[in-house]
Amino acid sequence: MSETNIDTHQTSTSTGVDNRKLLMWLFLGSDCLFFGSFISTYLVYRNRSLSGPYPNEILDIPITTVSTFVLLMSSLAMVLGLNYVKEGRQVIGRYWTLATALLGMVFLGFQVYEFTHFAHAGLTPRTNIFGTTFFTMTGFHGGHVTFGVIWLLIFAGSSLANTIRQRLLILSAFLSVVVTMIGFFMTETLDVIPHMPFAVTLAFILLGSLGTVLSLFMLRTPDAPSSVISNQESNLEIAGLYWHFVDIVWIVIFTVVYLISANDGAPLL
Amino acid sequence: MKIVIDLSKMKNSFVKIFQSFLGHSTRGYFRVPNTPQDLPDPKDDTPWAGYASYLGDQFNKITRKDGHGSPVFYAVIGLILGIITLIEFGIFYVESLGVLLVPLLLILSLLKFVMVVGFFMHLRFDNKLFTYLFASGFILAVAISIALIVLLAIKP
Amino acid sequence: MTTISYPTIIPRPKEYVTGIWGWLTTIDHKRIGTMYGVTAIIWFLIAGIEALLIRLQLAQPEGKVLTPEVYNQMFTMHGTTMIFLVVMPLSAAFFNWIVPLQLGARDVAFPRLNAFSYWAFLFGGILLNISWFTGEAPNAGWFAYAPNTQVPYNPTNGVTYWILGLQVLGIASLAAGFNFLTTIINMRAPGMSFFKMPVFVWMTAVVNVLIILAFPIITVALIQLQFDRLFGTHFFNSAMGGDPVMWQHMFWLFGHPEVYILILPAMGIVSEVLPTFSKKPLFGYSAVVFSGIVIGFLGWFVWSHHMFTVGLGPAANAAFAISTMLIAVPTGVKIFNWIGTLWGGSIRVTTALLFSVGFISMFVIGGLSGVTHASPPSDAQQQDTYYVVAHFHYVLMGGSLLGLWSGIYYWWPKFTGRFLNEKLGFWHFGMVLLGFNITFFPMHWLGFDGMPRRIATYPEGMGWDVSNLVSTIGAFVLATGILIFIFNVVYSNLRMPKTASNDPWDARTLEWTISSPPPHYNFEEIPEVKYRDDFWYRKYPELAFETHGGGSDHTEQEIDENHHGDIHMPDPSYYPLFLGLGLTIMIGGFLPFLGHWIVCGIGLVIFTWSFLGWCYEPVND
Questions:
Q1: For labeling, which of B53, B89, C337, C410 is most exposed (least CB within 10 Å)?
Q2: What is the ipTM of this complex?
Q3: Least CB-CB distance to A68: which of B69, B85, B117?
Q4: Could you give the CA distance from residue C244 to residue C147 in angstroms, rounded to a whole number?
C-alpha cells in the first residue's frame, strides 16, 4: 500500500529482512499483549455473572464452528494468493486475495448475527460481566478483522483492477456478498423485518449468490495486460501476516471462550 | 503323446518366480525396481524410506529461504486445519472425557496455532529474529494471563 | 507503484523546506528530536508550577492556597505530566537525535511514522491539559484506581480527559517503539554487530521492547475504564461481578515496566557520559548491557509490589517480594560498573559529568528506599505515605532527570554547535542538587511519621509542620536551579559562540565524527565499524593495538564538501501532522459533550484521509 519508506543509498538492511516486514512482526508481538489482556480479563471473570444469560445458555457452538472454519479457509485463501503472486501469476493471486476479503466478510456476518442474536436474547455489554467481557473481546477482534477486510479490498481494488469496469465488478462482488448474507440472516428470525415472506429471503440469497459468482466470473479476463499490474509481493506478504494473526487470535478465542468456557453458568458460591 | 514332466524345470520356474517375487532379480515376471533397501549399505531400510525422502525433499523445497510450497501443500494444510476444527467440535460433546477435555482442546488448538504461524505465516523458515520477537510477545501474554488467573483465584 | 492517483490538495513538499512549514512537515529525526525536547521542557515548567502550588499548599497546616478538589487535580496532573509529557518525551528526544547518529544511519527506519509520533504526543498532551480550562482536570491520581474513577464517585469529565489523553500518548509511544526497534535491528552501520553498539543504543532497544509490550496493556485497561464510564459496562464494578483490583493489576502490569522505561534511557546516557569524561572505556560493557536486559526482563514479574496492601495473600506477597529484591541485583551491577569506569580515569569535570555522578548517588538513595519497599511488612507501613513520594522522586528526579540533564549538557554542542555555559551549569547543578535534597529528603521521615499521601491539608500538632515547611523552601531552591537552566539555554543560544567542533569532548561514539550540528543527511559516507567505540580507535590507533591486538586499519574517509549532491533524503510530508490531529480529534470525540459523536466522525474522516494519503503519497523526483 505504500512505497519505500526511505530512499537513500542504504538499501540493504543489517539483518537482510525488509524493514516493513520486521515492523509487522513487532506489531503482531505487541498485539498479542493487547488481545492477551482482553482474553485474560475474560478468563479472570468467568463464573462471576450475577444474573442474565449465562454462557451455557446462549453460546452456539455449531454456528461458531462454521465461522471458525470460514476464517481458517480465508487464511488458506490468503496464503494461496500470496503464493500465486510470488510465482508471478498476479491475476490469479489477486483473485485469491479478493476471496480472502470476501470470506472475511462472511465471518463478520456471522459475528454480526451472533451479536444481534445475543442482544435479542437479552445479553448486552451492560447486562452482566459475561456480556461485558465477551462483547469487548470479540468486538475488538471483529474490529481487527474489519480493518483487514478493508485493507485487502483496497489492495485488490487498487492493484487488481485497472479500469473502472473492474473496480465496479469488485464493488458488485462485495455488495452481492452483503446481500447474500442479509438473505441468510433474514431466514433466522431476527425480527429485523417482521413477517418477512420466505420468498423474499430466498430471492435475496439467490440474487446475492448470482451476483457474486457473476462478478467474479466477469473479472476473469483483465482488460489491461498483466505487465501493467505491478508486483506488490511484499505488500501482500505483510497484509497476509496481519490476516493470519487475526485468524490465530480467533483460534485462541474459539477454544478458550467457546469450547472450554461454554459450560460456565452462575457463580458457584 | 508323450507328456514329459520335467521336475527340475518346474523347480527352476518356481525358484525364478519365487526369487523375482521377492524382488531380488530385475528379470522375471514381477519386475519390481530396486529400492534403496537393495543398495549394499542402505541409508534407511524401513519400508517407507522412499516416501520419507520424497516428503523430505518436498519439505526442503518449501522451506528453503525463498521457497514457497505448492498450492496443493497449502490446501492440504488447510484441510488438516479443517479436520482438527471438526475434531474439536466433535469431542466437545463427548461427556466421558471429563477433565481431559480442556488439555485435549488446548493441545489441538496449539497444533492449529503452530501450523498457521509456522506454515501460513512462514515463520518457521524465515529469519529466526521474527520467531524470537513474536514468541516473546506471545509467551509474555500467556504468562501474564496465567499469573492473573492464579492471583485472582487464590483467596487471601 | 499503483494505478490509483490519490487526490492531493497541496503537493508534497520537496526535499528541504524552510520556515514554519518546514517544521510542520519535517520528517528529519534531528528536527523531531528538537521538537520533542522543546515541548518536553515547556511541559516540565508547567508541571513544575503545579508542584510548587502543591508545596505552597502543604507548607503550613490547614493551608488555604488550594481547595481539596483543586489539590486533587493538581497532584494528578503533576504526576501525569511529569511522567508522560516530560520524562518520556525527553527520552524520546534523545532517542531521535542520538540513535541514528550512533548507529551510523541517515535517519530512522520510518521517518513519517517518527513525525507522527511527535504530533500525536503534542496533540495528546494538549487534549489532556484542555481539562484545566473546562474546570474538570483529572483528579484520581496518576494511576486512577477504581472504583474512584467510576461514574458514581467521579461524575465530572476529569477522568475521561485523562483516559483519552493517555490513549493518544500511548499510540504515539507505540509508534515510536516500533520505529526505533526496527532502526536498531535493521539499520546499523556495516560491521556493527549488536555487541559493538553503544550502551545508549542498547538501553534504547530494551526500553522500546518494554514500550511495545507494556503499552497494549494500558491501552486495554483504559478502554475498559472508558467503557465502564461511557457505556456502563462492569469491568471494575463489584456490584455486578467485576473487581476493582483488576484495574490495579492491569495498571501496574503496565506501570512497572513503565518506570523502567523512565529510568533506562538515563542509565544509557550516563553510560556514555562517564567514559568520555574519564577517558576510559565503560567498565564491563557486557555486564552493563546484560544488566539492562535482565532489568527489562525481570521488570515483568514484580508488578504487585505496588499492591502489597491490597490483600493478595501471603503467598503472592512473598513471591513478588522475592522478585522485587532480585531486581536490585542488576541495578547494583550497573552502579559498580559506573564507579569502575570513573576509578583510575583521568577525570575532566564538566557539568555533564557532575550530573552523571549526581545521578549515581541520588539513584542509589532512591534505590535504598525502594529496597525497603520490597519487603511487604515494612511496605505495609510505608505504603501511601510520603516515604513513597520520597522514593520515587529520588529515582525519577534524582535519577532520570539528572541523567537527562547530563545528556543535555553533553550533547548540546552536537545539537546546536554552541556550548551551554559551564559556570551557569555548575550553578544549575548545585542549586538543583541542594534544592532537590532539601525538598525530598525530609519526606522520608515524614513518611515514617505517618503523613499520608494525597491529602490536601494536615492538622496542626502532628509534628509534620517543620519538615513540610523545609520541603517547600527546598522546592523553591529547586525552582531557582531550574530557572538557571532555562537562562543557560537562552544565554547559550544568544551569547555563546558557535564554535563547537566535530568532537569537542574527545568522545568515543560515531555521532562525534560528523559536524556539530550535523548536516541533514548525517553521514557523507556510511561508516564501516570494526570495533566497539570504533571512533576512539580511529583517533588513537595505538590503543587499538593494545586493546584489540590489531591495528585500526580504517581507510581515511575523504570528506568532499560538495559531494552530497547524490544523497537523496526522504521528502517531508504533512500527513503525519494531520494523522495525529485526526487521531486526537477522533479520540477526543469520546468526551461526552453535546454533538461529540459528530466531532468523533470528523476526526475519523481526517484520520482516514491522512492514512490513505500517507500510503499513496508520491515520491518527489
A1: B53
A2: 0.92
A3: B85
A4: 6
Contact A143/C at CB under 8 A:
no
Residue pairs between chains A and C whose CB atoms are closer than 8 Å: 145
Angle of the C244-278 helix axis to the C386-395 helix axis, nearest 10: 40
Digit-coded pLDDT (tens) for A55-76: 888 898 888 999 999 999 999 9
Cα(C328)–Cα(C336) distance, integer angstroms: 12
- Residue C76 predicted with pLDDT over 90: yes
Closest chain C C-alpha to B91 CA, distance in angstroms: 31
Look at phi and psi of residue A82 and say left if phi exceeds 0, alpha if psi is from -120 to 50, else beta: alpha
**Secondary structure class of C200 (helix, strand, coil):** helix
Residue C80: CB partners within 8 Å, gap ≥ 6?
A: C128, C138, C142, C162, C165, C166
Beta bridge partners of C452: C385
Minimal C-alpha gap between A197 and chain C (Å): 36
Quick check: A3 pLDDT over 50?
Answer: no
Listed in sequence order, the residues at least 6 apart from C144 whose beta carbon sits closer than 8 Å to its beta carbon are C138, C159, C162, C163, C225, C247, C251
Measured at the CA of C531, the angle between CA C526 and CA C533, to 5 degrees, comes to: 85
A11 inside 8 A of chain B by CB? no
Backbone phi, psi, residue C101, to 5°: -65, -40
Q: How many other CB atoms are there within 10 angstroms of residue B101's CB atom?
A: 19
Predicted local confidence at residue C188, as pLDDT = 93
Contact B105, B91 (CB under 8 A): yes
C524 touches C563 (CB < 8 A): yes
Q: Provide the 8-state DSSP code for A47.
A: T
B73 CB neighbours in chain A (<8 A) are none
Specify the 3-state DSSP secondary structure of C452. Answer: strand
Report the distance separating Cα A13 and Cα C182, nearest Å: 10
Report yes or no on whether pTM surpasses 0.80.
Answer: yes
pLDDT at B144: 94
Percentage of chain B beyond pLDDT 90 is: 18
Contact C399, C452 (CB under 8 A): no
Do residues C351 and C422 make contact, with C-beta atoms less than 8 angstroms apart?
A: yes
Q: Is the pLDDT of residue A191 over 50?
A: no
Residue C2 has a pLDDT of: 43
Cα dihedral C565, C569, C573, C575, rounded to 10, equals 160
What 3-state class would DSSP assign to C385?
Answer: strand
Count CA within 13 A, CB hemisphere, residue C196: 19
Please provide the DSSP assignment of C107-157 as one string: S-S-HHHHHHHHHHHHHHHHHHHHHHHTT----STTTT-TTTTSTTT--SS
H helix and E strand count, chain A: 8, 0
Q: Average pLDDT, stretch A154-177?
A: 75
Q: Cβ of C137: how many Cβ atoms within 10 Å?
A: 26
Burial class (CB in 10 A: 0-12, 13-18, 19+), C461: exposed
Position C618 pLDDT exceeds 80: no
User: Residue A247: what residue type?
Assistant: D
Which residue is associated with the grid cell 511487604? C376
Q: C310 by DSSP, 3-state: which? A: coil
Omega into C517 within 30° of 0, i.e. cis?
yes
Distant-in-sequence, close-in-space partners of B24: CB < 8 Å, separation ≥ 6: none
Grid cell listed for B127: 529469519
Per-residue confidence (pLDDT) for residue B128, from 0 to 100: 81
C616 touches chain A (CB under 8 A): yes
Residue in C577, C583, C578, C576 with CA at minimum distance from that of residue C599: C583
Helix axes C111-133, C88-103, angle to 10 degrees: 170
A177 backbone φψ class: left, alpha, beta (φ>0; ψ -120 to 50): alpha
Do residues C157 and C591 lie in contact, with contact meaning Cβ atoms separated by under 8 Å? yes
Mean pLDDT of chain A: 80
